[in-house]
């Protein structure tokens, strides 16, 4: 389906998504709007195969090129290689940049005038933001599925529980990142500016998340920054899940996956996931408020 056809379908759905608005509840109207926006994200993603390939290129380079190259210097012994350690960070990276691109498409819609048509549709702007966030999260987690499919190349076992756990954690991360991107996109007029701002914010967060190194034995200033980095609470649960399914000596596991601690208190896994969930809900709520002010 061409881009013009997609836009024509979306305009029709948003302008006349039901035959008799008065007969539908507000919840049904909002649900319909969320579904339309979510479906549009899926159609756009399926029609852009190049986006799928380019979205995987960076994490694959990170995992196999960087992992294999530095693996000649970093030795964990016969039980583990560097690619396996880097796999959680590479999986998070695949979701991270795809989710940002999904949020950035709002800026494209603004430049081409389609965003205005969405905003004047007879639906709440909150439902449009929710639909965009959910659609972007599902699209980004599709990239995560592809990373899960190649897990064996990084010596990560194909265990059903592990695969489902990684997917769920990547989906939550994608929702948080898309919601953050929507918050940033609410006031930005040009796509180039959006990418510059998000790269300036996200790249430091990624490098401080522990995606490339263990969280143990860090300098004091870096330890503080990793604890206040939201991405740390997304990468650590994935790495925990992976290492629970590996045959690694306890001492090595404690060194490579020490978890997150707050002033000596070890943060439980559920709380780490809860931090990411709260951040996703907070960013989405603020983004919805910001889009209510957009003309």
Indicate the mean pLDDT: 82
How many individual helices?
Answer: 12
Domain count: 1
Topology, number of strands: 2
How much beta, percentage-wise? under 5%
Largest sheet: 2 strands, antiparallel
The helix fraction, in percent, is over 70%
Note the overall shape.
elongated
- Element order: H for helix, E for strand: HHHHHHHHHHHEEH
> What ranges have pLDDT less than 50 throughout 5 or more consecutive residues?
3-9, 17-22
Oligomer class: single chain
Helix/strand-derived class?
mainly alpha
- Terminal residue distance: 30 Å
Strands side by side in the biggest sheet = 1-2
As a whole number of angstroms, the C-alpha radius of gyration is: 20 Å
Summarize the structure in short.
Helices cover 73% and strands 1% of the residues. The chain is mainly α. Helix 4 (82-112) packs parallel to helix 7.
Keywords for this entry:
2 strands, mainly alpha, elongated, two-stranded antiparallel sheet
